[in-house]
Amino acid sequence: METDRKKASEIILGYKFFFDTAFRELLEDLAHVEEFGEADIVLQRATFKGISIEDLPNSCEKILLLKNLWYKYFEKVLTARSWRDLEKRLDVLRTRVLSKFLKLFQCWIVPEKNHSLEELYKVWSINGALVWFTDTGKGGPKPYYYGLLPIRKEYYGNNSYFMDTVFRGYAYTLQFLWYSLLGKDSFKKVPHLDKMHIAEEIFYDDCRELLALWNLGGSSEEGSKTYLKWKCLDRFFGILQEHVVEKIEEQYGVSFGISDYKLFQLNPNCSQKEFLAGLYSDKVPEPSYIKAKSSPEEWQKWLDLKFLWYPFEVLDTFGTRVFNGAIAFVYILTGMLEYR
Q1: Residue 233, SS3?
Q2: Interior CA angle at 70 toward 67 and 75, to 5°?
Q3: Rounded mean pLDDT of 52-64?
Q4: Residues 330 and 221 both lie in one domain
Q5: Are residues 8 and 142 located together in one domain of the fold?
Q6: DSSP-derived secondary structure letter, 319
Q7: Per-residue pLDDT, 1
């Protein structure tokens, strides 16, 4: 019974982790798509430097959009502690956020003849499932390491090794996603896809050489085993690309991310603000350091913001660099902060 409870707990944590990954990808995309508002220099630098959205001032409409999505909807999903609570919060997300985006896309995207909107949704979803969720070669899904959202073990039981804890639930969720997208018959035709949740057993022999190389780096045994699981799951990237995505690209005569724009046109008469009403509200938190600076850390964050997170440069005495007064000023202020 205790083992079953532990498994159920790990499944829900992995399910939440899947949504965590999806939220990160969505916010990263919104930050770079001009149609959802212009990104000011603060947001441009923050996305480049990997600064958390929670450390950004409300300096432009696009930041307001990202913060509304994060604080009011996405974070609430990640803090759910039971299946019932999670489902309720996901229902709110569907009705108040995802439905609005869906209506916007229905207005926005005009498929070329011989294609339907539902058809495009499906092929784009298949490519997204591959690129965003199945590419785990770096020890986890690629979007999870984007910097706009904070990484918090509190969402996953305060476990320092939560990347291991969430693996099984994430793999089950990803496997179900592929089943839903491909349908029963096509799903069965992809090698090993029905065993995605035990990827480390299916591909262990292929991955253990990588594990040996990982151990050479001085990683802990726990970290090495976790890395192995995600690396084995990544083997499905090549399998699905060969058996599914490349065939779709050949069928439609496009390459995803490069020439798939040939499948549709954009309707210029659709306003994102009209469809996403309420998601640009300015009633979202600003970081505490904006108004009150009660610690050196807050002063440091304030200075980083003012200088847009540009790195320091070394001022040498050998004449190899031209003196830069702006850089010197940054050093002086930082030094005063450290001295105090």
Answers
A1: helix
A2: 150
A3: 94
A4: no
A5: yes
A6: S
A7: 45
3-state secondary structure of 254: coil
Query: Are residue 311 and residue 210 in the same domain, yes or no?
Result: no
CB 101 within 8 A of CB 276: yes
Question: Could you tell me the two tokens for 273?
Answer: 């603000």
To the nearest 10°, report the CA torsion of 51, 31, 163, 228: -110
Long-range contacts (CB closer than 8 Å, 24 or more residues apart) made by 138-144: 138/230, 139/163, 139/226, 139/227, 139/230, 139/231, 140/230, 141/21, 141/170, 143/21, 143/22, 143/24, 143/25, 143/28, 144/17, 144/20, 144/21, 144/24
Tokens of 83: 């299946």
Per-residue pLDDT tens digits for 3-54: 566 778 889 999 999 999 999 999 999 999 888 888 999 999 999 999 999 9
The answer to the question of residue 181 being in a domain is yes
The answer to the question of residue 91 being in a domain is yes
Q: Choose the final residue of a domain: 275, 298, 326.
A: 275
pLDDT tens digit sequence for 190-225? 999 999 999 999 998 777 776 666 554 556 666 778
State the DSSP code for 270: -
Separation CA 240–CA 147 (nearest Å): 27
Check if the beta carbon of residue 290 is closer than 8 Å to that of residue 135.
Answer: no
pTM: 0.86
- Average pLDDT of the residues in 318-329: 57
> Are 207 and 269 contacting, i.e. CB atoms less than 8 angstroms apart?
no
Q: Give me 126's structure tokens.
A: 């298949």
Structural domain of 329: 288-339
Task: Confirm if 227 and 216 have CB atoms less than 8 A apart.
Answer: no
Q: How many domains does the chain have?
A: 2
